Amino acid sequence: MFESVKAQLWDILKQKQVSLVMIFDKKGDILWHKGREIEGKSIFLGSGFSKSFARKIIATGNMVKKKNVPIVVFGNQLSESAKDLNVKSLIIIPIRKSFFLYVDSGTKEYFTGTDLEVFTVMGELLEKMIEGVMDAQEDSKGITGVSDEIKKIREMVLKYSLEEEPLLLIGETGVGKSHYAELIHRYSGRKGKFVVAEITSINENLFESTMFGHKKGAFTDAKADKTGLVQEADKGTLFIDEIAEIPVSFQAKLLRFIEKKKYRVLGETRERDAEVRIVAASNRDLQKAIEDREFREDLYYRLQVLEIEIPPLRKRKQDIEAFITTNREYLKGKEIGESFWEVVFNYDWPGNMRELITVLKRAGILLESPITGEKIKEVIYGSGYKKSFTQPLTDTHVHEPGWKEKIREDFEKGKTFWEVVKEPFLNRDLNRQQVKMVLSEALEKTRGSYKDTLRMFNIDDGQYERFMKFLYRNHLN
Questions:
Q1: Do 5 and 13 contact (CB within 8 A), yes or no?
Q2: Would residue 385 be called left, alpha or beta, if left means φ above 0 and alpha means ψ between -120 and 50 degrees?
Q3: Which of 31, 56, 115, 123 could form a disulfide with 162 if both were Cys (CB 3.0 to 4.6 A apart)?
Q4: Is residue 143 part of a domain?
Q5: What is the domain count for the chain?
Protein backbone atom coordinates (compact mmCIF):
# COMPACT_ATOMS: atom_id res chain seq x y z
CA MET A 1 0.00 0.00 0.00
CA PHE A 2 2.29 2.78 1.26
CA GLU A 3 5.35 1.22 -0.34
CA SER A 4 3.86 1.33 -3.82
CA VAL A 5 2.52 4.87 -3.34
CA LYS A 6 5.91 6.11 -2.11
CA ALA A 7 7.66 4.56 -5.12
CA GLN A 8 5.12 6.13 -7.49
CA LEU A 9 5.48 9.46 -5.70
CA TRP A 10 9.24 9.50 -6.13
CA ASP A 11 9.06 8.48 -9.82
CA ILE A 12 6.75 11.43 -10.52
CA LEU A 13 8.72 13.89 -8.42
CA LYS A 14 12.01 13.04 -10.14
CA GLN A 15 10.47 14.25 -13.38
CA LYS A 16 9.70 17.55 -11.63
CA GLN A 17 13.39 18.14 -10.76
CA VAL A 18 12.71 17.61 -7.09
CA SER A 19 15.72 17.61 -4.79
CA LEU A 20 14.06 16.25 -1.63
CA VAL A 21 10.68 14.76 -0.69
CA MET A 22 9.67 13.89 2.88
CA ILE A 23 6.66 12.75 4.85
CA PHE A 24 6.55 13.91 8.46
CA ASP A 25 3.88 13.95 11.15
CA LYS A 26 2.38 16.59 13.45
CA LYS A 27 4.97 15.76 16.12
CA GLY A 28 7.79 16.53 13.71
CA ASP A 29 8.94 12.93 13.22
CA ILE A 30 10.28 12.30 9.72
CA LEU A 31 8.71 9.04 8.57
CA TRP A 32 10.18 8.77 5.09
CA HIS A 33 12.39 10.77 2.76
CA LYS A 34 13.96 10.39 -0.66
CA GLY A 35 16.48 12.43 -2.62
CA ARG A 36 19.08 14.69 -1.03
CA GLU A 37 20.69 13.31 2.09
CA ILE A 38 19.41 14.64 5.40
CA GLU A 39 20.42 14.05 9.00
CA GLY A 40 18.20 13.09 11.91
CA LYS A 41 14.65 11.78 12.21
CA SER A 42 13.01 14.96 13.46
CA ILE A 43 11.99 18.25 11.88
CA PHE A 44 13.18 20.02 15.03
CA LEU A 45 16.52 18.27 15.51
CA GLY A 46 17.46 17.19 11.97
CA SER A 47 19.15 19.09 9.16
CA GLY A 48 19.28 19.19 5.37
CA PHE A 49 15.87 20.82 4.76
CA SER A 50 14.03 24.06 5.46
CA LYS A 51 13.22 23.83 9.16
CA SER A 52 11.38 27.15 9.37
CA PHE A 53 8.66 26.22 6.90
CA ALA A 54 8.30 22.71 8.30
CA ARG A 55 7.85 24.10 11.81
CA LYS A 56 5.42 26.72 10.55
CA ILE A 57 3.11 24.19 8.92
CA ILE A 58 3.11 22.05 12.08
CA ALA A 59 2.07 25.10 14.05
CA THR A 60 -0.56 26.38 11.59
CA GLY A 61 -1.63 23.29 9.63
CA ASN A 62 -1.83 25.43 6.48
CA MET A 63 -0.16 24.85 3.14
CA VAL A 64 3.03 26.82 2.60
CA LYS A 65 3.99 27.73 -0.94
CA LYS A 66 6.86 30.02 -1.85
CA LYS A 67 8.28 30.64 -5.34
CA ASN A 68 11.73 31.96 -6.19
CA VAL A 69 13.10 31.84 -2.66
CA PRO A 70 16.86 31.79 -3.10
CA ILE A 71 18.96 30.60 -0.19
CA VAL A 72 21.49 33.35 0.21
CA VAL A 73 23.07 35.11 3.14
CA PHE A 74 20.69 38.02 3.01
CA GLY A 75 17.62 35.86 2.49
CA ASN A 76 15.15 36.32 5.36
CA GLN A 77 12.72 33.69 4.16
CA LEU A 78 14.45 30.60 5.51
CA SER A 79 16.10 29.63 8.76
CA GLU A 80 19.83 29.69 9.41
CA SER A 81 19.95 25.91 9.07
CA ALA A 82 18.87 26.20 5.42
CA LYS A 83 21.45 28.80 4.30
CA ASP A 84 23.85 26.26 2.90
CA LEU A 85 21.15 24.40 0.97
CA ASN A 86 20.68 25.10 -2.70
CA VAL A 87 16.89 25.14 -2.43
CA LYS A 88 15.05 27.37 -4.88
CA SER A 89 11.43 26.55 -4.10
CA LEU A 90 9.43 24.43 -1.74
CA ILE A 91 5.89 23.19 -1.18
CA ILE A 92 4.48 21.55 1.93
CA ILE A 93 1.02 19.96 1.80
CA PRO A 94 -1.02 18.74 4.81
CA ILE A 95 -2.22 15.14 4.66
CA ARG A 96 -5.17 14.34 6.94
CA LYS A 97 -4.03 16.99 9.48
CA SER A 98 -1.61 14.55 11.09
CA PHE A 99 0.88 14.17 8.23
CA PHE A 100 2.66 16.49 5.80
CA LEU A 101 4.24 16.10 2.37
CA TYR A 102 7.38 18.24 1.93
CA VAL A 103 8.90 18.87 -1.52
CA ASP A 104 11.80 21.17 -2.41
CA SER A 105 13.79 21.81 -5.59
CA GLY A 106 17.51 22.12 -6.19
CA THR A 107 18.10 23.13 -9.80
CA LYS A 108 14.56 24.21 -10.64
CA GLU A 109 14.00 27.91 -9.94
CA TYR A 110 10.35 27.50 -8.97
CA PHE A 111 7.47 25.06 -9.05
CA THR A 112 4.64 25.84 -11.46
CA GLY A 113 0.92 25.70 -10.87
CA THR A 114 0.87 22.35 -12.70
CA ASP A 115 3.57 21.05 -10.34
CA LEU A 116 1.47 22.08 -7.38
CA GLU A 117 -1.55 20.25 -8.82
CA VAL A 118 0.52 17.07 -9.21
CA PHE A 119 1.87 17.29 -5.67
CA THR A 120 -1.62 17.92 -4.33
CA VAL A 121 -2.97 14.84 -6.14
CA MET A 122 -0.16 12.74 -4.65
CA GLY A 123 -1.00 14.14 -1.21
CA GLU A 124 -4.67 13.22 -1.72
CA LEU A 125 -3.65 9.70 -2.75
CA LEU A 126 -1.57 9.33 0.40
CA GLU A 127 -4.49 10.67 2.41
CA LYS A 128 -6.83 8.04 0.96
CA MET A 129 -4.31 5.33 1.78
CA ILE A 130 -4.08 6.55 5.38
CA GLU A 131 -7.87 6.75 5.72
CA GLY A 132 -8.16 3.21 4.38
CA VAL A 133 -5.69 1.95 6.94
CA MET A 134 -7.44 3.75 9.79
CA ASP A 135 -10.80 2.34 8.71
CA ALA A 136 -9.28 -1.15 8.56
CA GLN A 137 -7.93 -0.74 12.07
CA GLU A 138 -11.43 -0.32 13.40
CA ASP A 139 -12.66 -3.72 12.23
CA SER A 140 -12.08 -7.07 13.91
CA LYS A 141 -9.02 -7.74 11.78
CA GLY A 142 -7.43 -4.47 12.77
CA ILE A 143 -6.87 -3.00 16.22
CA THR A 144 -10.02 -3.03 18.30
CA GLY A 145 -10.29 -1.03 21.50
CA VAL A 146 -11.26 2.29 23.06
CA SER A 147 -8.57 2.83 25.73
CA ASP A 148 -6.06 5.66 25.44
CA GLU A 149 -3.33 3.02 25.24
CA ILE A 150 -4.86 1.27 22.23
CA LYS A 151 -5.56 4.59 20.49
CA LYS A 152 -1.89 5.48 20.84
CA ILE A 153 -0.85 2.07 19.50
CA ARG A 154 -3.23 2.52 16.55
CA GLU A 155 -1.48 5.79 15.68
CA MET A 156 1.96 4.22 16.02
CA VAL A 157 1.03 1.25 13.82
CA LEU A 158 -0.06 3.67 11.10
CA LYS A 159 3.03 5.84 11.51
CA TYR A 160 5.48 2.94 11.57
CA SER A 161 3.86 1.41 8.49
CA LEU A 162 5.39 4.32 6.56
CA GLU A 163 8.81 3.65 8.06
CA GLU A 164 11.55 1.32 6.87
CA GLU A 165 13.62 1.15 10.07
CA PRO A 166 13.57 -1.92 12.35
CA LEU A 167 10.74 -2.10 14.86
CA LEU A 168 10.66 -3.69 18.31
CA LEU A 169 7.39 -4.90 19.85
CA ILE A 170 7.43 -5.36 23.61
CA GLY A 171 4.73 -7.06 25.67
CA GLU A 172 3.66 -10.10 27.63
CA THR A 173 2.80 -13.41 25.99
CA GLY A 174 -0.59 -13.26 24.30
CA VAL A 175 -0.94 -9.48 23.86
CA GLY A 176 -0.92 -9.81 20.07
CA LYS A 177 2.60 -8.87 19.00
CA SER A 178 2.52 -11.07 15.89
CA HIS A 179 -0.86 -9.57 14.93
CA TYR A 180 0.53 -6.03 15.13
CA ALA A 181 3.61 -7.05 13.14
CA GLU A 182 1.46 -8.49 10.37
CA LEU A 183 -0.75 -5.40 10.29
CA ILE A 184 2.28 -3.14 9.92
CA HIS A 185 3.52 -5.28 7.03
CA ARG A 186 0.08 -5.28 5.38
CA TYR A 187 -0.34 -1.52 5.68
CA SER A 188 3.20 -0.86 4.44
CA GLY A 189 2.40 -2.36 1.05
CA ARG A 190 5.82 -4.01 0.82
CA LYS A 191 5.94 -6.25 -2.25
CA GLY A 192 7.52 -9.23 -0.51
CA LYS A 193 6.05 -11.70 1.96
CA PHE A 194 5.51 -11.52 5.70
CA VAL A 195 7.83 -14.24 7.00
CA VAL A 196 7.87 -15.41 10.62
CA ALA A 197 11.02 -16.66 12.36
CA GLU A 198 9.89 -18.73 15.35
CA ILE A 199 13.14 -18.50 17.29
CA THR A 200 12.29 -21.06 19.96
CA SER A 201 11.58 -23.72 17.34
CA ILE A 202 14.97 -23.35 15.61
CA ASN A 203 17.76 -25.74 16.56
CA GLU A 204 20.68 -23.61 17.79
CA ASN A 205 23.13 -25.59 15.65
CA LEU A 206 21.09 -24.84 12.53
CA PHE A 207 20.31 -21.22 13.31
CA GLU A 208 22.49 -19.59 10.66
CA SER A 209 21.33 -22.10 8.06
CA THR A 210 17.66 -21.46 8.90
CA MET A 211 18.05 -17.69 8.71
CA PHE A 212 20.51 -17.34 5.81
CA GLY A 213 20.20 -20.68 4.01
CA HIS A 214 22.90 -23.11 2.92
CA LYS A 215 24.34 -24.77 -0.16
CA LYS A 216 24.46 -28.51 -0.63
CA GLY A 217 27.51 -29.93 1.15
CA ALA A 218 28.05 -26.85 3.35
CA PHE A 219 28.05 -29.18 6.37
CA THR A 220 27.52 -32.87 7.09
CA ASP A 221 23.72 -32.99 6.87
CA ALA A 222 23.38 -30.39 4.08
CA LYS A 223 22.13 -32.82 1.41
CA ALA A 224 20.41 -30.14 -0.69
CA ASP A 225 20.33 -26.37 -1.10
CA LYS A 226 18.11 -24.59 1.40
CA THR A 227 16.55 -21.14 1.11
CA GLY A 228 16.85 -19.08 4.28
CA LEU A 229 14.13 -17.00 5.91
CA VAL A 230 15.93 -13.79 4.94
CA GLN A 231 15.74 -14.64 1.25
CA GLU A 232 12.08 -15.65 1.59
CA ALA A 233 11.35 -12.23 3.11
CA ASP A 234 13.18 -10.22 0.42
CA LYS A 235 11.24 -7.03 -0.38
CA GLY A 236 9.00 -7.88 2.57
CA THR A 237 9.08 -8.17 6.36
CA LEU A 238 10.87 -10.68 8.58
CA PHE A 239 9.13 -10.99 11.94
CA ILE A 240 11.53 -12.36 14.56
CA ASP A 241 9.44 -13.61 17.45
CA GLU A 242 11.07 -13.99 20.88
CA ILE A 243 14.18 -12.11 19.71
CA ALA A 244 15.80 -12.53 23.16
CA GLU A 245 16.19 -16.25 22.50
CA ILE A 246 18.54 -15.76 19.52
CA PRO A 247 21.90 -17.41 20.30
CA VAL A 248 24.55 -14.86 21.27
CA SER A 249 26.82 -16.42 18.63
CA PHE A 250 24.40 -15.32 15.88
CA GLN A 251 23.49 -11.87 17.18
CA ALA A 252 26.50 -10.10 15.62
CA LYS A 253 25.62 -11.55 12.20
CA LEU A 254 22.01 -10.41 12.55
CA LEU A 255 23.20 -6.92 13.53
CA ARG A 256 25.43 -6.75 10.46
CA PHE A 257 22.56 -7.84 8.22
CA ILE A 258 20.28 -5.16 9.67
CA GLU A 259 22.91 -2.48 9.10
CA LYS A 260 24.28 -3.55 5.71
CA LYS A 261 21.37 -5.56 4.23
CA LYS A 262 23.97 -8.17 3.31
CA TYR A 263 24.35 -11.79 4.35
CA ARG A 264 26.21 -14.92 3.35
CA VAL A 265 24.61 -18.28 2.59
CA LEU A 266 26.53 -21.10 4.26
CA GLY A 267 28.78 -22.68 1.67
CA GLU A 268 29.05 -19.55 -0.49
CA THR A 269 31.92 -17.07 -0.60
CA ARG A 270 30.04 -14.10 -2.02
CA GLU A 271 27.58 -11.98 -0.09
CA ARG A 272 23.97 -11.52 -1.09
CA ASP A 273 21.69 -8.51 -0.71
CA ALA A 274 18.16 -8.60 0.69
CA GLU A 275 15.82 -5.66 1.15
CA VAL A 276 14.09 -6.86 4.30
CA ARG A 277 12.43 -4.90 7.07
CA ILE A 278 13.02 -6.43 10.49
CA VAL A 279 10.21 -6.44 13.05
CA ALA A 280 11.19 -8.14 16.31
CA ALA A 281 9.20 -9.03 19.42
CA SER A 282 10.03 -9.97 22.99
CA ASN A 283 8.15 -10.77 26.17
CA ARG A 284 11.36 -10.56 28.19
CA ASP A 285 13.13 -7.60 29.78
CA LEU A 286 15.86 -7.03 27.20
CA GLN A 287 17.78 -4.69 29.49
CA LYS A 288 18.00 -7.54 32.00
CA ALA A 289 19.11 -9.88 29.21
CA ILE A 290 21.86 -7.38 28.34
CA GLU A 291 23.00 -7.28 31.97
CA ASP A 292 23.06 -11.09 32.01
CA ARG A 293 25.17 -11.05 28.81
CA GLU A 294 22.47 -12.95 26.95
CA PHE A 295 21.73 -10.12 24.50
CA ARG A 296 24.01 -7.67 22.72
CA GLU A 297 23.52 -4.06 23.68
CA ASP A 298 24.35 -2.78 20.18
CA LEU A 299 21.74 -5.09 18.63
CA TYR A 300 19.14 -3.89 21.14
CA TYR A 301 19.70 -0.23 20.28
CA ARG A 302 19.62 -0.99 16.55
CA LEU A 303 16.29 -2.77 16.92
CA GLN A 304 14.89 -0.10 19.23
CA VAL A 305 14.92 2.71 16.64
CA LEU A 306 11.15 2.30 16.70
CA GLU A 307 9.35 0.62 19.59
CA ILE A 308 5.78 -0.21 20.51
CA GLU A 309 5.04 -1.42 24.02
CA ILE A 310 1.74 -3.27 24.18
CA PRO A 311 0.21 -3.19 27.68
CA PRO A 312 -1.41 -6.33 29.13
CA LEU A 313 -5.18 -6.68 29.00
CA ARG A 314 -5.53 -6.29 32.77
CA LYS A 315 -4.29 -2.67 32.42
CA ARG A 316 -6.82 -1.73 29.75
CA LYS A 317 -9.97 -3.61 30.67
CA GLN A 318 -12.19 -1.12 28.85
CA ASP A 319 -10.97 -2.77 25.65
CA ILE A 320 -12.47 -6.13 26.65
CA GLU A 321 -16.07 -5.09 25.98
CA ALA A 322 -15.14 -3.49 22.65
CA PHE A 323 -13.31 -6.64 21.55
CA ILE A 324 -16.08 -9.06 22.58
CA THR A 325 -18.75 -6.87 20.98
CA THR A 326 -16.79 -6.68 17.73
CA ASN A 327 -16.03 -10.41 17.73
CA ARG A 328 -19.43 -11.85 18.71
CA GLU A 329 -19.00 -14.54 16.04
CA TYR A 330 -16.76 -16.39 18.50
CA LEU A 331 -19.83 -16.96 20.69
CA LYS A 332 -21.71 -18.49 17.73
CA GLY A 333 -24.84 -16.41 18.20
CA LYS A 334 -25.20 -17.14 21.94
CA GLU A 335 -26.70 -14.35 24.03
CA ILE A 336 -24.76 -12.73 26.88
CA GLY A 337 -26.50 -13.30 30.22
CA GLU A 338 -26.53 -12.11 33.80
CA SER A 339 -23.18 -11.19 35.47
CA PHE A 340 -21.21 -12.12 32.33
CA TRP A 341 -19.57 -8.70 32.08
CA GLU A 342 -18.84 -8.58 35.80
CA VAL A 343 -16.91 -11.84 35.58
CA VAL A 344 -14.84 -10.95 32.50
CA PHE A 345 -14.01 -7.51 33.92
CA ASN A 346 -12.94 -8.92 37.30
CA TYR A 347 -10.68 -11.57 35.79
CA ASP A 348 -7.01 -10.61 35.26
CA TRP A 349 -6.55 -12.42 31.92
CA PRO A 350 -2.95 -13.56 32.47
CA GLY A 351 -2.93 -14.95 28.93
CA ASN A 352 -4.10 -11.59 27.55
CA MET A 353 -5.83 -11.45 24.15
CA ARG A 354 -4.87 -15.01 23.26
CA GLU A 355 -6.59 -16.27 26.41
CA LEU A 356 -9.66 -14.09 25.85
CA ILE A 357 -10.09 -15.39 22.30
CA THR A 358 -9.68 -19.00 23.47
CA VAL A 359 -12.27 -18.57 26.21
CA LEU A 360 -14.77 -16.95 23.82
CA LYS A 361 -14.33 -19.73 21.25
CA ARG A 362 -14.81 -22.45 23.88
CA ALA A 363 -17.81 -20.67 25.33
CA GLY A 364 -19.37 -20.52 21.86
CA ILE A 365 -18.87 -24.25 21.39
CA LEU A 366 -19.54 -25.63 24.88
CA LEU A 367 -22.13 -23.36 26.48
CA GLU A 368 -25.85 -22.91 25.99
CA SER A 369 -27.44 -19.50 25.56
CA PRO A 370 -27.50 -17.25 27.49
CA ILE A 371 -23.87 -17.29 28.66
CA THR A 372 -23.99 -16.17 32.28
CA GLY A 373 -21.16 -15.25 34.62
CA GLU A 374 -21.23 -18.66 36.29
CA LYS A 375 -21.02 -20.43 32.95
CA ILE A 376 -18.09 -18.36 31.69
CA LYS A 377 -16.27 -19.04 34.99
CA GLU A 378 -16.51 -22.75 34.27
CA VAL A 379 -14.89 -22.25 30.87
CA ILE A 380 -12.09 -20.18 32.38
CA TYR A 381 -11.43 -22.70 35.15
CA GLY A 382 -11.74 -25.65 32.84
CA SER A 383 -9.14 -24.14 30.51
CA GLY A 384 -6.65 -24.38 33.35
CA TYR A 385 -5.91 -20.69 33.68
CA LYS A 386 -4.62 -19.03 36.82
CA LYS A 387 -7.67 -18.22 38.86
CA SER A 388 -8.59 -14.68 39.76
CA PHE A 389 -11.75 -15.69 41.67
CA THR A 390 -12.22 -16.96 45.20
CA GLN A 391 -13.65 -20.32 44.09
CA PRO A 392 -10.99 -23.08 44.48
CA LEU A 393 -9.72 -24.78 41.36
CA THR A 394 -10.56 -28.46 41.63
CA ASP A 395 -8.75 -31.32 39.95
CA THR A 396 -11.69 -31.91 37.62
CA HIS A 397 -11.57 -28.26 36.56
CA VAL A 398 -7.85 -28.38 35.83
CA HIS A 399 -7.50 -31.64 33.96
CA GLU A 400 -9.56 -32.73 31.03
CA PRO A 401 -9.90 -36.53 30.68
CA GLY A 402 -7.23 -38.20 28.58
CA TRP A 403 -4.85 -35.25 28.37
CA LYS A 404 -1.89 -37.30 29.62
CA GLU A 405 -2.56 -40.09 27.15
CA LYS A 406 -2.69 -37.62 24.27
CA ILE A 407 0.68 -36.16 25.26
CA ARG A 408 2.24 -39.64 25.44
CA GLU A 409 0.82 -40.48 22.01
CA ASP A 410 2.21 -37.26 20.52
CA PHE A 411 5.69 -38.04 21.87
CA GLU A 412 5.46 -41.56 20.46
CA LYS A 413 4.63 -40.06 17.05
CA GLY A 414 7.90 -38.12 17.18
CA LYS A 415 6.53 -34.70 18.05
CA THR A 416 8.86 -32.51 20.11
CA PHE A 417 8.47 -31.01 23.57
CA TRP A 418 8.10 -27.59 21.92
CA GLU A 419 5.04 -28.77 19.97
CA VAL A 420 3.47 -31.00 22.60
CA VAL A 421 4.10 -29.02 25.78
CA LYS A 422 5.56 -25.56 25.27
CA GLU A 423 3.18 -24.29 22.60
CA PRO A 424 0.02 -25.50 24.42
CA PHE A 425 1.40 -24.02 27.66
CA LEU A 426 1.93 -20.60 26.06
CA ASN A 427 -1.52 -20.84 24.48
CA ARG A 428 -2.98 -21.69 27.93
CA ASP A 429 -4.19 -25.08 26.72
CA LEU A 430 -1.97 -26.67 29.38
CA ASN A 431 -1.49 -25.12 32.81
CA ARG A 432 1.63 -25.03 34.95
CA GLN A 433 0.48 -27.93 37.12
CA GLN A 434 -0.04 -30.16 34.08
CA VAL A 435 3.39 -29.31 32.64
CA LYS A 436 5.00 -30.07 35.99
CA MET A 437 3.24 -33.44 36.04
CA VAL A 438 4.65 -34.26 32.58
CA LEU A 439 8.15 -33.27 33.73
CA SER A 440 7.81 -35.16 37.01
CA GLU A 441 6.80 -38.34 35.22
CA ALA A 442 9.78 -38.04 32.86
CA LEU A 443 12.25 -37.25 35.68
CA GLU A 444 11.04 -40.24 37.62
CA LYS A 445 12.03 -42.46 34.69
CA THR A 446 15.42 -40.74 34.27
CA ARG A 447 16.19 -40.70 38.02
CA GLY A 448 16.10 -36.92 38.15
CA SER A 449 18.29 -36.22 35.10
CA TYR A 450 16.94 -33.31 33.07
CA LYS A 451 19.43 -34.03 30.32
CA ASP A 452 18.18 -37.59 29.90
CA THR A 453 14.60 -36.37 29.54
CA LEU A 454 15.54 -34.72 26.23
CA ARG A 455 15.35 -38.04 24.39
CA MET A 456 11.91 -38.72 25.86
CA PHE A 457 10.79 -35.31 24.63
CA ASN A 458 12.35 -35.76 21.15
CA ILE A 459 14.82 -32.92 21.71
CA ASP A 460 18.45 -33.18 20.62
CA ASP A 461 21.28 -32.52 23.07
CA GLY A 462 22.10 -29.15 21.49
CA GLN A 463 18.84 -27.73 22.83
CA TYR A 464 19.50 -28.58 26.48
CA GLU A 465 20.31 -24.98 27.44
CA ARG A 466 17.19 -23.69 25.69
CA PHE A 467 15.10 -26.38 27.41
CA MET A 468 16.40 -25.42 30.87
CA LYS A 469 15.89 -21.71 30.19
CA PHE A 470 12.25 -22.39 29.34
CA LEU A 471 11.74 -24.32 32.59
CA TYR A 472 13.55 -21.72 34.69
CA ARG A 473 11.77 -18.67 33.25
CA ASN A 474 8.38 -20.25 33.70
CA HIS A 475 9.09 -21.60 37.19
CA LEU A 476 8.66 -25.20 36.05
CA ASN A 477 11.83 -26.79 37.41
A1: no
A2: beta
A3: 31
A4: no
A5: 4
